[in-house]
Amino acid sequence: MHYDEDVQKRLKRVEGQIRGVLKMMEEEQPCKDVVAQLSAVRNAADKAIAYIVAVNLEQCIMEEKEAGRDTGKVVHQAIELLVKSR
């Protein structure tokens, strides 16, 4: 699968957020602030996962249709990926 620039930008933002959380911890920032930032990191990672699965699902469905095969299995696998990621 080709990972486009959008998903790479998303993950670079997550990387920056993680560095920010580590800095907050080094500076002994309040727990609630650290947890709030970690929650933002989790949300950003969840969105990146959903984006990757959606793009891959679209690609796989097109390939299955072109080959004349049923797309149900591909959809089921995508749902399993999303469930595992939570």
Plain-language structure description:
It is built from three helices and no strands. The radius of gyration is 17 Å and the shape is elongated. Helix content is 84%, strand content 0%. It is mostly helical and 86 residues long. Helix 1 runs antiparallel to helix 2 and helix 2 packs antiparallel against helix 3. The mean pLDDT is 90. The protein starts with a helix and ends with a helix. It comes from Paenibacillus vulneris. This is Metal-sensitive transcriptional regulator. InterPro entries: Metal_Tscrpt_repr, Metal_Tscrpt_repr_sf.
Provide keyphrases for this structure.
mainly alpha, 3 helices, elongated
Number of strands: 0
Bulk shape: elongated
Overall pLDDT score: 90
Number of helical regions: 3
What multimeric state do the chains show?
single chain
Q: Secondary-structure element order, as H and E?
A: HHH
Instruction: Report the biggest beta sheet as strand number plus sense, adding barrel if it closes.
Output: none
Based on CA atoms alone, the radius of gyration comes out at 17 Å
Please indicate the percent range of residues in DSSP E strands (runs of 2 or more). Answer: under 5%
* End-to-end distance: 22 Å
Q: Pairing-aware structural class of the strands and helices?
A: mainly alpha
Helix share bin = over 70%
Unreliable sequence segments: none
Protein name: Metal-sensitive transcriptional regulator
Pfam family, one: Trns_repr_metal
